[in-house]
Design goal:
Number of strands: 7
Oligomer: single chain
Strand content: 15-25%
Structural class: alpha/beta
Shape: elongated
Order of helices and strands: EHEHEEHEEEHHHH
Helix content: 40-55%
Number of domains: 2
Largest sheet: 5 strands, mixed
Strand order of the largest sheet: 5-4-2-7-6
Number of helices: 7
């Protein structure tokens, strides 16, 4: 598990290396890292889920950062790729040296969390937090948010089940 301080230190170090190499990188922060850093909804996350460019260089330097800071080799990964759509709404969160950190909007992050809805993870707690933060009070509004970001044919029954259960309480 990574805490907020470790993530910030790792991103700062990665940005410093990129700047030293005269490389401008971008990292789109999502998942638990966004919940921890941007929303301060929790203190820890398993890893930093992100999309990043230039992919090869950032991947290489992230491994160097892992060794320097005694982090898992996969502290930074792009496994979130399957839950992203083209042109995901985002904004700049921070800049660390040669690394610009973007993050997805709260609405999009909620839609992503609903799409994954993994039991045994923090997804359900994150979904509850984001529904509350966004003041979504009806099942219909939650479904509309989800279908505004993902095509209906990609939405799995588990996403609907999570919403139905949340709003039935």
């Amino acid at each position: 598990m990574l805490n907020r301080e470790q993530i910030l230190k790792a991103l700062d170090r990665l940005g410093t290396i990129l700047k030293e190499e005269d490389i401008e990188g971008q990292l789109l922060l999502t998942g638990g890292a966004a919940m921890s850093l941007v929303h301060r909804a929790r203190d820890m996350t398993q890893d930093v889920d992100a999309l990043y460019e230039p992919k090869t260089e950032i991947y290489e330097y992230a491994k160097k950062v892992a060794k320097e800071l005694d982090l898992p080799d996969d502290w930074l990964n792009d496994g979130v790729n399957g839950y992203m759509t083209e042109n995901a709404p985002s904004y700049i969160y921070d800049v660390f040296g040669g690394l610009t950190i973007l993050t997805v909007t709260s609405e999009y992050l909620l839609a992503m969390k609903l799409m994954s809805a993994r039991h045994g993870t923090m997804d359900l707690e994150d979904i509850k937090f984001l529904l509350s933060k966004l003041k979504i009070t009806t099942l219909e509004d939650a479904i509309k948010l989800l279908t505004d970001h993902f095509p209906k044919d990609r939405i799995l029954p588990k996403s609907m089940y999570v919403l139905e259960e949340y709003f039935s309480d």
